[in-house]
Amino acid sequence: MSDKGSVQRGTLYVFSAPSGCGKGTVLKEVRKASSRLVFSVSATTRQPRPGEVDGVDYHFVTKESFNELVRTGGMLEYAIFVDNYYGTPKDRVMSALDSGSDVILEIETAGAMMVKALYPEAVLIFMLPPSVEELKTRLIKRGTDSLEVIDKRVSQAMREISLACNYDYVFVNDRLDEAVQDMLSIMKAARLGVRQNKDLIKGVLKRC
Amino acid sequence: MSDKGSVQRGTLYVFSAPSGCGKGTVLKEVRKASSRLVFSVSATTRQPRPGEVDGVDYHFVTKESFNELVRTGGMLEYAIFVDNYYGTPKDRVMSALDSGSDVILEIETAGAMMVKALYPEAVLIFMLPPSVEELKTRLIKRGTDSLEVIDKRVSQAMREISLACNYDYVFVNDRLDEAVQDMLSIMKAARLGVRQNKDLIKGVLKRC
Questions:
Q1: Residue B154's closest chain A neighbor by CA?
Q2: pTM to 2 decimals?
Q3: What ipTM was predicted for this assembly?
Q4: Overall number of domains in chain A
């Protein structure tokens, strides 16, 4: 970084992948490799499960304060399910970016589109399964869901994959080590995207 | 790559940097690290210099055949100087991309804009000096040009840098090893750009 006098604003990454795609495993490796990466903690109105810690697993909030945040534009994205609300409080993400940290949001496609609209500099990354068939096989092998639930998950995955073309980058999780390298290269390159570096170009021109 | 049945089309990279920025050194290292990368050979109407080999350093062509290529849309980009013409014949680049090779064009900003217009999937990469002042210092240290020529080069560099915002990626050549890593990460990530992978997404959805 040549502009040593000022903090370069961090990059906001949005990461989505269908359920059963190995998102958790890939993110665990990515977390090990990047020290300046902050994982955003979502807010939710659901009750904490045993062992879940407020501020670590989720920010547990009331429906009233959740709605207040939505109403005042304080949510970067949110999803409302029948019983529970989930969302990303904007202020924490923005202050992390301001201080030069990169932030990663692990959210669904609908939320990703909301982030892109509100914060166009965000870099959207979608991880694909090798095929939908392979995804189904993985879900069956996992053995935690009934076939009916698996079919529902596969339909949901197909809906999500068809939105992948609205992301900036896509990669396939076929082999874990390759998937992690793909993700890290994307993150490195994304920081070098011209959208992120207009001030850098101005700075190079100025200092003469 | 999950779509093993078909050859994935290669990626076209356009690489520009002001004179004196260390472009040759960076490209030499990049060439070592990437086996499937083809360096495009330009066509020129100038006479070969001693030691230059036709088809290796340049394709040496007549003004008539150069003009014929331009007239028939056979040049991906070209530049006409007072005495000599330089250009990138389209057919060689396209057949390399078709066969799955990645191709890199080392050209000036004006040519880069022509490529982007004709082939929007191209990935445009601009390498910046740490500062214009530093660039001038490097040119002075090199000791091959008069101060008048150096001033001309610096003005030209500033004109080029001000066009860097039309590229896809920018990075600074401050330390060679970091610059090479930046370039390699950009090239890896660029292959994962969504523009390049619309067919991949379709393929994942289909095979189920």
A1: A208
A2: 0.84
A3: 0.83
A4: 1
